[in-house]
Structure formats: structure tokens, C-alpha cells
Design a protein that fits this description.
This protein is mostly helical. It contains 6 helices and no strands. The protein has one domain.
């Protein structure tokens, strides 16, 4: 991974972001466990008791959306998202910081787009019920919007950390 994950001992806002990322990661893991349980029940109900419930598909999609969105946000916080890690290893300190800033700005823009349009899509279908479950039809966009907002916050934090003056960067 990149060398930008060199945070000092977390204090103040950084500590809160660490806690927020940890909560997002744990919720993503719980969503994955829930997904396995729901799909296990779906297989059992369909092939053993021959009575396939209708609620498993919408719930599975919601759990998958939650795991994906919150997991991606936690990955942004821990700098385990896409990047140009091989290229940055070849660059000098100043160009490396510029590249890191470009990556974090790109991630922040993607997070903002996901947050905004996820919210618009969530609100657009909130009054329509899903077939097979008592959920709003657009429920799958809510975790996408929340994950995008977290990606935006975490990427902006990483941008601030990447642009922070360091002694190594001042030496060149």
C-alpha cells in the first residue's frame, strides 16, 4: 500500500474518523454475515421444505449493497482503495504528494457523486413498496448514499494528510 498511511497517534477529529471507519467496517461485515444467513435460508426453504420465501431476494440485495458501500468507504479511510501505488514508488516526494492529492480528489468526487445520486434515487422510490418485502423499492440506494458520503469525508481527510507538510518533502 501507499506510504500515506503514516498517521500519528490519532487524536481529536482523526480519532472520530477512525471510530467511524471501524463502525462502517463492522457493519459491512455484519451485512455479509446476514447475506450468508439469508441465502442459506433461501436454499434450505427452496430445496428442503419446497416453500421459497419472497423476502430473501430484496433483503439479499440490500445486505449486498450495504456491505459493498460501507466496505468501500472503510477502504478509503485505510488507503486500501485504487491508486497508483507502483507509479508513486518511482516518483520523488513532491510528485508523489501531487499524485496522492489527485487520487484523493478523484475518490472524493466519486464519493460525492455516489452520495448525491444515491440520495436522489433513494428519495425517488421511497414511497413505492418492494415486491416480496415491506421495504421501499429504493432502499438499496440508501447504503450507497451513506457509503458515498463516508468516502467523501474519508477522502477529504486523506487529502489533508497528503498535503500536510513533511520534513522529507521540504528537504528536496
Amino acid at each position: 500500500m501507499a506510504d500515506t498511511d503514516d498517521r500519528m497517534i490519532a487524536t481529536g477529529p482523526q480519532r472520530w474518523l477512525d471510530v467511524l471507519a471501524s463502525v462502517a467496517l463492522h457493519l459491512a461485515a455484519l451485512a455479509m454475515l446476514g447475506l450468508v444467513a439469508v441465502q442459506g435460508w433461501q436454499v434450505f426453504a427452496r430445496y428442503v421444505i419446497n416453500d421459497s420465501p419472497g423476502w430473501t431476494e430484496p433483503l439479499t440485495i440490500l445486505l449486498l449493497s450495504t456491505a459493498m458501500s460501507l466496505g468501500a468507504a472503510a477502504a478509503v479511510h485505510s488507503n486500501r482503495h485504487f491508486g497508483f501505488f507502483l507509479l508513486s514508488g518511482l516518483l520523488g516526494p513532491r510528485l508523489k504528494r501531487v499524485l496522492e492529492a489527485v487520487v484523493e480528489i478523484t475518490v472524493a468526487i466519486i464519493g460525492a457523486v455516489l452520495a448525491w445520486w444515491g440520495w436522489v434515487l433513494w428519495m425517488d422510490g421511497v414511497h413505492i413498496k418492494t415486491a416480496g418485502a415491506d421495504f421501499p423499492q429504493s432502499i438499496n440506494y440508501l447504503p450507497l448514499s451513506l457509503g458515498g458520503a463516508l468516502m467523501l469525508v474519508f477522502a477529504l481527510n486523506r487529502l489533508v494528510l497528503a498535503l500536510r507538510p513533511t520534513t522529507a518533502a521540504r528537504d528536496y
